[in-house]
# Entry
Amino acid sequence: MSYYFISIGGSGAKVMESLTHLCAAGLMPNKEKMSDLYVMAIDPDIGNGNLKRSSTALHCLNEFQSLDIGRGTSLFKTNVKLSRPFIWSPTEADMNLDDIMSYQAYRGTSIGNLYEVLYTQEERSTMLNEGFRGRPAIGAAVMAKKAGLDKSNNLNIANEQAWDNLIHAIQQDVKNGQEAKIFLAGSVFGGTGAAGVPTVARLLRSMLKEYIDAGTARIGGALILPFFSFTPTEQDKAAGMYASSENFLTNTKAALKYYAMKDSGYDAMYFIGDSQLTAVDKFSIGAASQNNDAHIVDFYGALAALDFYSEKADSGQQCSYISHMADDRFSWNDLPDIKLEDGGEVRIKDAIAQFARFIFAYVHLVKPVLSDLASGKIKDYKYPWFRDFLAGLSIDTTEVRSFEAYAESFATWLDQLEHSGNNRRVEFINPNAFTSQPADVVPEHFATLAVDEDSKVTMNELWHRLCEGKLQDEEYTRGFGRFLRLLYDSCAKV
Amino acid sequence: MRKKMHSLLVLLMVLMGLIISGCGDEKISVIEIPKEVGQSETVEQSAPIVDIYWDATESMRGYTALQTGLYRTLPDNLGEIASSMGETHFFRFGEAVTPMEGRSYRSFSSPDAYTELVTSFGRVIDEANADHLSIVVTDLFESDADWSNVTQKLREKYFAKHLGVAVIGVKNPFQGDIYDVGVNAAKFSWDSGNETAKFRPFYLFIMGPEQDIKDFLQRWQEHFAGDAGVVEMQYAVFLENLGAEQTSFPDLQVTDSKNLYSNESLEIKDKRVREFGYDSSSNETGLTVTCKYRPMNGACLANMQKLEKVMQVFALDEESGEWKKVDAGQDAPQIEVGPVDGEGNYNATLTFVPDQAISMGHVNFIHARLAPEPRSLKLPPWVKDWNMANIDLDPNAFDGSKTANLQHILESLRDTMLSAAQPALVNINLVINAR
Amino acid sequence: MSRNARMGLYMLGIVVWMGILGLIAYEAGSLAAHSFIGTGVNASLQKWQGLYKPLVFIMASISALITVFWCALTEWGFSVQSPWGVGKRTVWSLMGAALAVLSFVVPYVYVMQKSALIMSPIIPVIFLLLFVLAGYWISTIFATSAAYKYTPLFSSQIRRRKGGKN
# Structure
């Protein structure tokens, strides 16, 4: 099985962030190291803060996943491949709608007149470097302009490196007998998402028609419904065209109507929203300043991707519904188990709890002393795990640095997630048990990091396990990965 | 991991086994002095039985004639002293030995008791029990021929068995006849009156275990302490240890040692033997003991400048239980004697190198003794004064205040003791467990 | 086998090991005594051994107690909450030093109680070599909980390192 994820716009990027962490935690349904997750981002706003944050975690994971952590573990079991280039923008730099649509060529013509009617002057002249400003119409036009009809009269995007690589990868996997599952995530109420979600799906269906008809490729999508609101200041309003949260619901209604009536191009669609809109503290029209915290909706979006990846092709048409039992909280019991390729199941709670312990154990116990141990400033007899597993190794490597950066991003994501409930508690990881920026854990609460669970893996117990150094896989582990494997296994609950 | 634990456990068990097998009690052997060493067996000290043989011949009557003197009260005194030691029996003898009932021995205070014609000392020796303390009251008027027979009997019955003989001589008033003197069996009359110079000696001839003899002599001296200076008494003692003190362990004090330590790995009941261990078998080993030569009253005097040093080493054959002599030649243990101080104290030092002098792998018995050269032992000086030379040569030379052939008699006792026993000033008996 | 059970076995092993060392100390002391107990009538080797044996038992017990206590500390006593302050070599050294001091103090205090026992400086040296070096040091090298397994000096050279293939 091959897995593909395409994030569309800012909301898609946030789903991608959640999926990155769930993938690292080993929640993908594949067997270890036998499947790849190919990731691509579509966003005209290349400097988007959400995209930057989520792609940082993804890029880190892409760097350190080569560490030899051995077999028989779900940790880093899915190989992440990044699209080259990672971000595809339907626009070029410093272009407005008029430029893209080549308005000057059609000015005075009927097409040009129609164009003038459909788009306001502001819409036509605003630079699109920071996205489509919450205007699906702009996005749709831009996307459609990029795609064209090929010789067979099928939609295609030609001469775009990212798309060429994506299609080539899918073709290769299918030819090798693998089924390709492509999942898209984006909002239906924004600009890029609203435009891109239906367009990209149709584009893919056209470009992969042969495989889709053969059943060797499937397309799913997480369609994010409104879950946040914001209020621009007067100053923000004066700065130019901006997205307006008041239009979100209207846009959503229109979008949903479209999906209901038209062939969406998706084999599976996941609609995810929140009845309570989270107020965004700082409004941003785009770019780096648009950096919204992780949200439970993103988490559900990632879970939707996992569900899509794990569903059987012959599962038939079904309509599923997911919610949370208590109005005032999200808990582990609200989350489904993930079905694995081999028929097994994994509990999200177990995987994330162990992974969280793993990350926080590293930042608390290992990271503070690692470089001093490696340089000899600290005597290593005090740290048997260092002497047994890391002595003599160079730890100033890209992999190690990437892992430590990833750990920080994971802690930040988790922290934001825990506080994203918007008057509802998110009871996954005990928020009082850890901090982010910098990431750290309260040692006394280490064992009870996961809510409603006493793993009995106290910091002291973890220390003992590390020093005992019992590896489940001696043969295929090596170097720093060997140590990470030990650390991860030691975080398994008693 | 499991294999390693298993190997470790096996190793531990083997180690434990080795240690335990090395520990524990050694085979206990009861060690006794080798017979070749010639020392008496230790005997449980119990109350002795005292047999008193009274010479009832007519020659003895004269001691009772006068009212003064110790002889008249001797039966009571002797009975009292003997009874304080243990069971006492009285016998009268002449030619035959006759037991006396009850207190009939008191009759010896009276002249009427002396009716026998022939003195048969030899018969007394024959009938005496060597385990008892035998005391013969007599005037010791014996001929050479008679006495050589007695000497032979004493050798076999007493000296050869490491028993002793002592003689007490007492000068006593005498008025009467002395019969059967010399080869011609002449008769002489003697009246000492109250002249002490003319008092005639009678003797107590004491035979038996050395310790009983010493005990009797001590009681006798204490009993008659009041008569000191009034009654002339002399002593001659013929004991294997020559009357010296601190002649063997446990009386010997170890004042210095080298490469030796006290050991009790073997069962040794004989207190005259001590067990030692050595630290290094190749180093010189030494033991210095303090000895004391202060001979008791009457003992033959040894010339400390002329001492024989006897050294014997034996190894125990555990299978047969017998001691086998070890001949180390030049490497045999050596004994050196230090000078004697005014108190009679002197040191004797035994030295040897274990792996040269003893038999390694065996229990060894080292016997070292200091013995006087035979010719150097001197009788007490009073013997010469009390001696009357052979009467047969000159009957006119008869002197009733002396005893005929006394010197010869006592010299023969001395010589018999020297030849039959192994008299020594010091006996050092060591056991070294070299197993 | 659980960690607790394993440490229990190690403690049992320590007791057994100290017992073996006690036997060795007894034999070594007895051998050494040849050179200093002398030839006095009341100073035989066997009498000396009779007085020496309880002393050896006391020292072996003290050594076992201290060693077991160290192991108990490493398994159940010390608690790690942060990567700082995890070095316990000072504690280990102090306990070993205390045992070394006791190797000298205990025999001489014992002799004050049992004056018949002739003492020599070789005896505390034997105790030092056996109970402190062979006993405490070696035992702690092998029996210390994994969390502090390299705390005893030279333990990292002796004790097998898990991991390895770096």
About this structure: Chain A is about 45% helix and 15% strand. The longest strand of chain A covers residues 79-88. Chain A has two domains: 2-91+128-322, 349-490.
